[in-house]
Every structure is written in C-alpha cells, then in structure tokens.
Amino acid sequence: MALWVCLAASPTHAAPEVAPPLSHLLQAAGVDAGSTGPESLRLSTRRANRQQFSLYQQVMTRPLQAPYRIGTLAHAYRQSTDSPYETLELSGAVAGLDIHRPKALVLAQTQQSLRNSMDPLAASVAWMSLARGSKKRWRPTLPNSITLPDPLRFELAMVLATMGQADQHLRRALARIPASVTPDLLRRQTLDGSFRPFNEPDYRTLLPMVEREALLIGMLDLTAAVERLQQYVTTAPQLPAVAWAMDTPMGQIVVETTGRSNTHRLKAPLLVLDVGGDDSYEFLPSEGKHRMTVLLDHGGNDRYQALTPGADPSAATLGYGILWDTQGDDQYQGTQHAQASAVFGMALLVDGGGVNQYTATSHAQAHAVGGIALLLAGPGDDQYTAQTHSQGSAGPQGVAALIEPAGNENYTLNNSPLVRPSPQLPTHNTSMGQGAGRGIRADATDGRSSAGGIGMLMDFAGNDHYAAQVFAQGTGYQEGLGILVDDDGDDQFDAAWYAMGAAAHQGAGVLLKRGSGNDSYRASHSTSMGAAHDFSVGIFVDAAGDDHYQLGDLGLGAAHDNSTALFVDAKGNDSYYVEGTGCRALGAAYLSAWGGLREDLLNLGLFMDLGGDDSYPAHCRQARNNAQWAAIRKWPELKLRSEAGAAVDGEFALPFPLQPRTQ
Fold first, then answer.
1. Which of 244, 292, 405, 489 could serve as 255's disulfide partner, Cβ 3.0–4.6 Å?
2. pLDDT confidence tier of residue 10, bands split at 50, 70 and 90
3. Could you tell me the pLDDT band of residue 197, with boundaries at 50, 70 and 90?
4. Residues 6+ away with beta carbon under 8 Å from 43
5. pLDDT grade, residue 132 (50/70/90)?
6. How many whole angstroms from its chain centre is CA 121?
7. What are the extents of the domains in the chain?
8. What do you get for the CA distance between the two ends of the chain, in Å?
C-alpha cells in the first residue's frame, strides 16, 4: 500500500490547482491563490512546532487542498477495514512513522523457530522465565498435548512468543523514560490534567523520549499474531474443548473453548481466549507493572466491564492492549481510559459486528496521547456514549481513529454528568471528540505548551446521529487536527460551539460529508460549520443532498483573527438559518481588535453553495440564489487581507475531489 500517496508533503514550489468558482472567490476576496493558509507557522518559533505532525502542517499551509487530501486518507482507511494490521500500519503513517512490514513476513521467523522446538508452548513462554525485577526463575507447569492439543496449542504459542518479542520492542521504546514515571502519574497528568509544575516528571517533556518506531513495530507484530489467531478460531472446523488457566509473571493466561457462558473476573490478564457462549468480563485494577494484554472472544453476546481507569484490556499505559470480539451484540462499559485508549502506548479494540453499546466517561472510544489508539467496528447499529475526550480524540503525539464501516450509529458526548466544564459554556462539557485533535495551551501557566495530535472519526455508511457540546465533529485546538468523515445516509449533527469543521488557537478541523443524503446541521452557539479562530483552519464540505443548516453565530465559512475558513455545499436544495443579528456568516472575516500587526495578516472566509434552490436568512441581506458577494469590510478603502471574505451561490462543479482521482 502506497501510504505516502495521501500523506506525503506536496512540493513547496508547486502552485495549487484552483478552479472556478474558487478562483473567482479568491479574486473577489483580494487573495493570492498561492497563499491561503494562516501565517502562524511562519511567525512562530516555539518549541511545540517540532512536535507537529506532517498532516497537520499540510492542512495548515495548503487548506484548500485539505478536502482532497483528507478524502484520500479516508479512502485508504476504508480499504483497510478488513485488516486491523493494515489499519494500524496506516495510522502509523499518519503519525509520521515510515514503517511498512509485509504482514506475511512478520511472523515467519517466529513460526519457524517454534516448529523447530520440542514443545512450542514451552518455548513460547521462555521469555517470562525471569520476570522484570525478579532474581528467581519461573518454571511453569504446562498442560500436556492431550489437554491442550495441536493446532490450537501451536496457535496460542505463536501469540505468546510474539508477546515476548513485543515486550522487547516495548522496553526499547520506553528505555529513556525514568523509572519514577508510573502509569498512575501519567494517567493523572494526561486524563485529569493535574500537574505539579517543575516538581515531578512531566509527560509533556517525556514525549520526545519515546522511540515511536520501536513502539509501533512491537504493536504491529502483536496485532499480526492476534489476527492470525482470530482467523484460526473463526475458520477451524472444530476446536478442542479446553479449559485452562495459569498465572505467569506477566499476567494471567485463560483459555476457554468449551462454549459455555462464562463469568471472568480478571485482575491482570496477559492472554485470554474464549470461544462460544454469552460471556461476562469484569476487569479489576491491576498493578503498575502489567503492561500488555490480549483478549480474543469468539461468538456470543458478551459484556465487558471496567470500573477503574486503565483496567480495560484495550487501554494501554506504557504498553499494549488488544480486545477483539468477533461477533454478537455486545456491551462495553468503562469509566476513564477505556475502549481503545492509549497513553504512551498503543491500544486496539476490534468488534466484528452486531448491535453494540459503548459507554464510558472520558478518554475512551479511540483516545490517544503519546501513542496510537484504534476502535474498529463491524457492521451493525452501534451506540457510543461518553462525556469528554472520546470517539476519535487525540492529544499530544497521539493518533486516534474510530472507524465504522456500516450501520445507523448514534454518537453522543453529553452534559450529564458535567465532568469537564467548557470555558466557553460552563454548563456544557468540553467534548473534545468525534474527530478532535488538541494540544496543551500553557501560555498562562508554566509555558510548556505542546502541539496536538490527530483525532479521527470515519463512518462509511448509514443514517447517523452525532450529538456533542463544545469542540467536536472535526475540530482542532492548539496545533491539533480533528477529522470527521461521513459517507452517505441522512445524518444529523448537533453541537454548541467549535464544531463541524472548526478550530481555535492554531488548530485545524475538517468535516467531510461525502456521497448522498439529506442532512441536518445545528450549532446552537458559535464558531461552527467551516469556522476558525486565531490562526486556525476550519473546513466543511457536504457533497450532496437537501440539507438544513442552523447556526447561532460565526460560521458557514467565517474566519476570525487571522484564520482560514471554508464552507462548501455542493448540491441540493438547502436552507440556512443564522440566529445572530449581525449575520457573521456566509463568507465572512473578522478581527477582534484593530491597530496591530494582525490587520495585515490573512484572514480568509469562503462560502460556496454550488447547486439547487436555496433559502437564506432575510437579515443576511447579501446572500441569495445565483449570486456572488463579498464580505462587508470595516475598512473598505484599505482592502486589508484581514477582511478577505467572499461567497457564491450558483450551479458549479465541486472544485476539488473528495477521494482519489484514479483507481
């Protein structure tokens, strides 16, 4: 897979392709087509710039190419959904890690080594003979070949041996992290935002110490082994009935293939395989040294419950976590740090299909800081509920992706309970999810600001409902990139502030609604639907359908304080409603203060409705069908770049593709 096709930076000397009506709008706004991004990257020399991901930089420097670039990335994710290994490899490319290991070769050496051993299972656990920090050799009592026969015995050995290799990669990846850095400390800082400035190890200063390539290679190897085991248990004509459990220095091994409905209470699981039955899992708090878990459940309607942060098998702190449920109508219950959540590690949750419910409080359902987290769902009508930092949410040096291939989904980031009050609306939670990338803005505290990560939510089919509060649905904050891509279906988007292709403080947010569908978008307050504030980029594109837009204030292609905002509705009979009497929308550009350098820096707001019979608010006097208009300027005689706003309504082709140009 040529991952670089959608991620590699474009040559800086190449002029962007600009087609009508885009070229006409830029001309009306008085803007050079070769310079349409915010100027923060050129002006800023802060240390955080070195932590920025390449994809974020590309969106910021060439925002009008972002719909094509993000659409191509979504196409690559859609093509990889059948293989968690390939999805993880693609996510590594998004994180700027140039690693491509053919899956067929990853396990070949391990397989050959085990084939040559007298007992593959004994050879596979030899790496645990001396536990970390222990001087006493562990001598396990293993089941014989009758109790645990081949080929199941060999397949389990493949996973356990690969876990040993992954452990070596993990040690290398984290070798520079001080021993005083515990999972509890990292969770307190990354999840709760609780710091003791300059008086303890600080995760923001530790991020560059992680050897990310080694971290990814270990997780790729582990994912390949689990993918192999999953293929075996789902295709084997008959599995032996095995009930085996063993404690190891690295955690519990549980193998249950009798088909019974089991209740598992697990404190430190290393490897769990359960085949058949409607099973219930309760995950108990584990010791800090437990850093790796694999759980594979095949068949049945199952329940997974983690009542403490980090107890979920798919939550990884300074380690790896994989939870894979192949089928059934399942329930996932967690608090903080659950359901594909990585903190200085890598986490994977795979659900093969069914009608599933995911419930958590925060930092869940694809969340990452200093690592990669993936939640890969299967076909079915799923429901996701949390309060904050969930559903495709990434912090510094994190890449998080929630991928839904089909079904009518409900994504909710709600206000009850109020766990993270928003500075904009104290009665609402800061959602920071449904495709959100955020950094740490520490200007007013200790000055240790950090660039944000890349958070993605991609839903490829179905009639879906997205509900959130502040910062959600393709949103970026403090040098982070948030992406929401939805394909087809009649969808509904509801939020309050900074949502639906919106960003603030050098952030970038992108929402692409591709394909057909009659959609409804409602932002009750401000800065939404292709809106950006303070050297940011906000991109919104809806490709087709009869859509309804309801905005409080500042959006629909509105730039604020030297940002770039783009709103495009390509086809359909659409209706627009703006509550704010000043109609700061529909191709607008505003500054919050005059008399400084910002007055001469770019501030670009573009609005395009490219087809259909549309309705506009009466108090937005310039907006109408089959017309082009420029934003009203406060200083018209100066023609300032900070007041570059323009709009068009007419019959035009979409000026950029939303997927690869070729097949």
1. 244
2. very low
3. confident
4. none
5. low
6. 37
7. 82-132+142-332, 388-655
8. 13
Confidence band of 14 (pLDDT split at 50, 70, 90)? very low
Residue type, 83: S
pLDDT bin (cut points 50, 70, 90) of residue 135 is low
Q: If you count DSSP H runs as helices and E runs as strands, how many of each does the chain have, helices first?
A: 13, 43
Question: What are φ and ψ of residue 303, in 5° steps?
Answer: -130, 130
pTM, 2 dp: 0.95
Q: How far is CA 545 from CA 373, 402, 548, 606, 616, in A?
A: 33, 25, 10, 20, 17
List the structure tokens of 303: 């329940």
Instruction: Determine contact, residues 79/87, Cβ cutoff 8 Å.
Output: no
Query: Mean of the pLDDT values across residues 477-501?
Result: 98
d(CA 338, CA 324): 14
Torsion of CA 73, 76, 80, 81, to 10 degrees: 60
- Using an 8 Å Cβ cutoff, are 402 and 366 in contact? yes
The string of DSSP letters for 381-431 reads: --EEEESEEESSEE-TTEEEEEEE-SS--EEEE--SS--SB-SS-TTSBEE
Give which of 226, 248, 250 is closest to 298, Cα–Cα. 226
Residues with Cβ within 8 Å of residue 194, at least 6 apart in sequence: 188
Q: Which residues pair with 11 in a beta bridge?
A: none
Residues 82 and 565: their CA atoms lie apart, in Å, by 35
Least reliable range by pLDDT among 146-160, 240-254, 441-455: 441-455
Count the Cβ atoms, other than its own, within 10 Å of residue 334. 30
Q: What is the pLDDT of residues 343-365, one digit of tens each?
A: 999 999 999 999 999 999 999 99
Taking residue 232's Cβ as centre, other Cβ atoms within 10 Å add up to 17
Query: In Å, what is the CA distance from 157 to each residue of 120, 258, 379, 581, 645?
Result: 6, 19, 31, 68, 63
> What length does the chain have?
663
Per the model's pLDDT, the better-predicted residue between 480 and 268 turns out to be 480
**Chain centroid to CA 479:** 15
Preceding amide of 313 cis, omega within 30: no
Q: Are the C-beta atoms of residues 464 and 435 closer than 8 Å to each other?
A: no
137 CB neighbour count, 10 Å cutoff: 8
- At which residue do the structure tokens 């590699």 appear? 8
What is the C-alpha separation between 468 and 428, in angstroms, rounded?
A: 9
**What's the maximum distance between 2 C-alpha atoms anywhere in the chain?**
89
434 contacts 409 by C-beta, under 8 angstroms: no
Nearest to 306 by CA among 276, 286, 326: 286
